Amino acid sequence: MTATQLATDTAQRCQVMGIINVTPDSFSDGGRFLDVDAAVRRGHELVRDGADILDVGGESTRPGAQRASEAEELARVVPVVEGLVRSGFPVSVDTMRASVARQAVAAGAVIVNDVSGGLADPEMLPFLAEADVTCVLMHWRAHSTRMDDFCYYDSVVDDVCTELRGRVEAALRAGVRAERIVLDPGLGFAKNATQSWELLASLARLRDLGFPILVGASRKRFLAEAASYGRRSPDVPADRDEASDAVAAIAAAEGAWGVRVHAVSGAAAASRVAARLRTSAVATGLVGARTGER
Predict the structure, then answer these.
(1) SS3 string of 54-91?
(2) Environment class of 53 (CB within 10 Å of its CB; exposed 0-12, middle 13-18, buried 19+)
(3) Active-site residue numbers?
(4) By C-alpha distance, which of 61, 54, 78, 66 is closest to 117?
(5) Which residues pair with 54 in a beta bridge?
(6) Total structural domains within the chain
(7) Which of 103, 112, 139, 244 is the most exposed place for a label (fewest CB within 10 A)?
(8) What 3-state DSSP class applies to 25?
(9) 67-91, pLDDT tens digit by residue?
(10) Does residue 8 lie in a domain region?
(11) Does residue 276 lie in a domain region?
């Protein structure tokens, strides 16, 4: 299944990827879905709320997080993938390890979401070429324990684009098919708040790389300033959901392939509104049906 085939309607609506963290230490919901049955129930809830894809991860990548062992990650992830696939849901596995990706794909996962873009495990890109599944390659510079030491750029947009091109070239050399590749700018990963906002404001530049773009902003710390109003606390990740929904709306309107979110209903509405507006714009001649250009 390619990134294009994963779209669920003729407008190629922005895909909503619902997050299932099977971890004890994720920044937003660590420990809530460690139990397999709880994680599978959460998947059902997310699909009922409008998720198109369920992204299962067994290793936290919050700032400062220590890596889980390979055995721990496998034990957390594979049974959940199996349960969700049995329920008939499209499943993505969020992992930096080729061994975990291999077992998740064998269990039925159709996407491998590697936040390291293939840098953390030299076996990942060869596996992705062999498995021939959709893969998300994120911009990444270091593991969570050190990533905040790498927030230095001449121009964050130019540098991220250059480094993502490098990951694409590495993937293609390894045999990954171009139509299988989705790119993620890695908001919050080795980026401070200002840099994350700059990337978010530059989605058109990222799309010019020629690959579908996944935007993962949900509940991240750079949204705190936008979440600080009314009774919302910028320090509580769930209080950033409205800001996350706003980002999803912007991303969908800007033509992102997908958004990765914890609470999916707002993003699902944003995706459908953006698709309906684009359909109407094409019908009235405001944009081209194929290019989306004015």
Answers:
(1) EEEECCCCCCCCCCCCHHHHHHHHHHHHHHHHHCCCCE
(2) buried
(3) 220, 260
(4) 61
(5) 18, 91
(6) 1
(7) 103
(8) coil
(9) 889 999 999 999 999 999 999 999 9
(10) no
(11) no
Length of the chain: 294
Cα–Cα distance for residue pair 19/215, rounded to 1 Å: 13
Greatest Cα-to-Cα distance within the chain, rounded to the nearest angstrom: 55
Token pair listed for 240: 């950033």
For the entire predicted model, the pTM comes to 0.90
User: CB–CB of 36/79 below 8 Å?
Assistant: yes
Residue 95 has pLDDT above 90, yes or no: yes
The two structure tokens encoding residue 247: 């980002």
Beta strands 111-114 and 258-261 are: unpaired
Domain hosting 201: range is: 15-268
Q: Which two tokens stand for residue 78?
A: 């594979």
Pairing of strands 214-215, 181-184: unpaired
Among 89-93, 111-115, 262-266, 289-293, the least confident range = 289-293
Question: Is 6 within a domain?
Answer: no
Does a structural domain hold residue 101? Answer: yes
Q: Could you tell me the two tokens for 228? A: 């600080």
CATH at residue 157: 3.20.20.20
Nearest to 125 by CA among 174, 186, 61: 174
Question: What residue type is assigned to position 100 of the chain?
Answer: V
